[in-house]
Specification:
The structure holds two protein chains of two kinds. Chain A is an alpha/beta fold. Chain A has twelve helices and twelve strands. In chain A, the strands form two sheets. An eight-stranded mixed sheet of chain A has the order 6-7-8-3-9-10-12-11, sandwiched between helices. A four-stranded antiparallel sheet of chain A has the order 2-1-4-5. By secondary structure, chain B is of the alpha/beta class. In chain B, 32% of the residues lie in helices and 20% in strands. In chain B, the strands form two sheets. In chain B, strands 7-8-9-3-10-11-13-12 form an eight-stranded mixed sheet, with helices on both faces. Classes of the chains: A alpha/beta, B alpha/beta. The interface between A and B is large, with 46 and 42 residues.
């Protein structure tokens, strides 16, 4: 799993987002039509073979970012490259070729399968769409793929409603890796599953990545899931990445006060990590706070006596340690290796 | 009905009790409840009446063609002021246990129990009027999805006033005053605006606060919270859990917290019951359960959770999946997935039995984590 870390510096990134912006029109009572910025000037490189985890709460922009990357929606500004190819303006055959390189697994395992299709057809569909193969060849590949995700020949004729959630997700994963893509986008792939089944799927994803050298962009609200699968993580808040760093280090010694609050809020089975209560609720995207968007809820700012700088000046990402960047004016530059201080 | 079962609850009963509850055969179990022994009567006289007492609760749904067993003998006792977590995976019966405790099941439900009592009153024999007086007043429920729990076409304030009116409590200005007090106690910002707001105008976190406030209106003895934070973001969920715990400690009501998340239980509960295939497989104080889980299913669940601390090697999994046809199981329902299964487990269903005071497991080989050669 550690082979990827070097990629960021040694080889060209597989995924490169530069200044990515995605805006949507919205209507707000009393104000009329407004524009909301779901993703706000995000720069992100993912190395070949790396697993990158995006965490954040609802509305933070993590799914929108993935949809832009997959070209399921057009971007407002900025540039997206996958394997050196421009995704942002790709059309026709160029876009089709790119889609072979990047596949996706969605959250809802049952809903992401056509209820009328047999498993064999679900897994064969990308092969039929993108490759010219004979029926025998397709059948052989489908069987190989099902075997890779731990499903046997008996599943070929079944439909989604005859499968458990975990089995549906295995089928969705088989479909996603059918074309041997280089990038797999995993959008909350286990959050609809029970914990014992989740563990099976996470192990499968780790195995597939190792065997095929896959690159992952994993979106999850569960820090444990991200920690298990990913080399690096980015924490999003209101459309921006506010902290980025190696997964192990960021979990052990988070630097941004929001990351610290996320970790402390997580109900852990290993004991109370600190009952950190972030004040209030995430602000609305229609009315983002000035300066640092986290400042109205920030416990660190409160501890420092509510300095004006957080309101006046949006913080840029700064390097706080090797490989660690955070967008906070006051995050200490040399985080301790202890667990984060527990905010009150 | 028996000391064996009572000891899984908060009652301080020890090993000399009769063990009729451990009969392995479910079919011959009387469903009317037997008279308690003299010793148990004495102990009961000393102990406070449990807020909720469930013993031998069985539930099946009668379909046109077949009968689906949902609960296969649940034992659960909640003492006054106690927060008990009911944990398990999809289909284990945790939600229907909560619904059964409020008698909120559909007509197809076939419910039997040795004991199903709220505050000493037999929920199985109460008439509809009596049940209505209990529901929403003495027992309140908090649901997972706060958006669908409120009626979208009435304001929050009007819906809360309805609860008070339905139970012949405060009306008019007095009702509004009571609502304000309760809203303040749940930390609701901008109370006047929220009372005039429709559900769609509030965030999920605000609505969940409003639902907790609604539950508190009539000063309940018991709150049943079914996945109260599952739909919420983690920072908001932490606020709501802390709020629920603070209110529970301050006001002294009891809580049945139904969740799939062991981390949530660890945060707010005094005691935990782990459900599997319609039965309680382990019951212990929260501290004891997490320190040394005795049932192999509990151990498996805890090991399968991905941690934020150092990880190495693959996650432990529980092979297979939850059984869907509970009614047809012989032996221990967990046996097909159990890493330490023995011949006896496939033949004979283990009953929930005490391992030490306030700690019980339904396993022939509790605490065994390695199969001996």
């Amino acid at each position: 799993m550690s082979t990827a870390v070097q990629g960021g510096t040694l080889s060209a990134p597989l995924v490169r987002l530069s200044g990515l912006v995605k805006e949507y029109p919205a209507y707000v009572a009393g104000r009329g039509n407004v524009t909301i910025r779901a993703v706000d000037r995000v720069d992100l490189d993912i190395a070949p073979g790396e697993a990158y985890g995006l965490v954040g709460e609802s509305g933070s922009g993590k799914t929108t970012l993935a949809r832009c990357l997959l070209r399921l929606v057009d971007t407002t500004a900025g540039r997206i490259e996958v394997a050196g190819q421009d995704v942002t303006n790709a059309t026709g055959a160029g876009l089709r070729a790119l889609r072979r390189e990047m596949q996706v697994v969605f959250q809802d395992p049952v809903g992401s399968l056509d209820p009328r299709s047999r498993v064999a057809d679900v897994v064969a569909e990308p092969l039929r769409t993108h490759l010219r193969l004979g029926a025998k060849e397709i059948e052989a590949r489908v069987l190989t793929l099902l075997d890779e995700v731990g499903l046997g020949r008996t599943f070929l004729g079944r439909r989604a409603h005859e499968l458990s959630g975990g089995q549906c997700q295995r089928v969705a994963i088989a479909r996603a890796v059918a074309l041997r893509p280089r990038l797999l986008v995993l959008d909350e792939p286990t959050s609809a599953l029970d914990v014992s089944v989740q563990a099976q799927i996470l192990n499968l994803l780790a195995d597939l990545r190792r065997e095929h050298g896959l690159t992952y962009l994993l979106i999850s609200h569960d820090l444990g899931v991200v920690r298990y699968l990913c080399d690096r993580i980015g924490v999003m808040y209101l459309g921006r990445i506010v902290e980025q760093g190696p997964a192990a280090r960021t979990m052990a010694a988070p630097t941004h006060p929001y990351t610290q609050a996320l970790l402390a809020s997580r109900p852990s089975v290993d004991g109370v990590e600190g009952v950190a209560l972030v004040r209030g609720e995430p602000p609305s995207l229609t009315d983002p706070p000035p300066g640092c968007s986290f400042h109205p809820r920030c416990w660190l700012r409160a501890e420092l006596g509510d300095p004006d700088r957080c309101v006046d000046e949006p913080p840029d990402l700064r390097v706080l340690a090797p490989g660690v960047t955070a967008a906070c004016h006051f995050a200490p530059a040399t985080p301790t290796t202890d667990h984060a201080p527990v905010p009150r | 009905m028996s000391g064996e079962r009572a000891r899984t609850g908060a009652l301080p009963i020890t090993a000399e009790q009769p063990t009729t509850g451990t009969l392995p055969n479910t079919a011959e179990q009387p469903t009317t409840g037997t008279l308690p022994s003299t010793a148990e009567q004495l102990i009961r006289a000393a102990a406070p009446t449990p807020v909720l007492e469930i013993r031998g609760l069985r539930l099946a749904f009668q379909g046109e063609e077949r009968r689906t067993v949902a609960l296969d003998g649940i034992d659960l006792v909640i003492a006054p002021g106690e927060a008990v977590g009911v944990v398990g995976e999809t289909g284990c019966g945790k939600t229907v246990t909560g619904l059964a405790a409020m008698r909120l099941l559909p007509a197809s439900a076939r419910l039997t129990a040795d004991v199903l009592q709220f505050d000493g009153r037999d929920l199985l024999t109460l008439d509809d009027g009596a049940l209505r007086r209990i529901r929403g007043a003495e027992v309140a429920m908090i649901f997972q999805n706060p958006t669908s729990a409120f009626n979208p076409v009435f304001t929050i304030g009007a819906q809360m006033a309805d609860v008070l009116a339905a139970h012949d409590r405060e009306r008019g200005d007095a009702a509004r005053e009571r609502i304000r007090i309760v809203m303040a106690s749940v930390g609701m910002p901008d109370v006047e605006r929220v009372m005039r707001a429709y559900p769609h105008q509030l965030s999920g976190g605000m609505l969940q606060r409003a639902m907790i406030a609604t539950a508190l209106l009539c000063r309940p003895r018991l709150i049943i919270a079914d996945e109260p934070t599952t739909a919420l973001d983690v920072t908001i969920a932490a606020q709501i859990l802390a709020l629920l715990r603070r209110l529970q400690l301050d006001e002294g009501f009891s809580v049945m917290l139904i969740t799939h998340d062991l981390g949530v239980v660890r945060r707010v509960c005094d005691r935990v019951a782990v459900l599997y295939a319609g039965r309680v497989v382990e019951s212990a104080t929260t501290e004891a359960l997490f320190a040394a889980p005795q049932h192999p299913y509990t151990r498996g669940l805890l090991a399968a959770v991905p941690r934020t601390s150092a990880s190495s090697g693959p996650l432990q999994t529980i092979p297979g999946s939850v059984p869907t046809d509970i009614g047809s199981i012989t032996g221990c329902a967990f046996a097909p997935r159990c890493p330490v299964v023995q011949d006896r487990c496939r033949a004979e269903a283990p009953w929930l039995r005490d391992l030490e005071p306030a700690r019980a497991a339904a396993c022939h080989f509790p605490g065994v984590s390695v199969v001996s050669a």
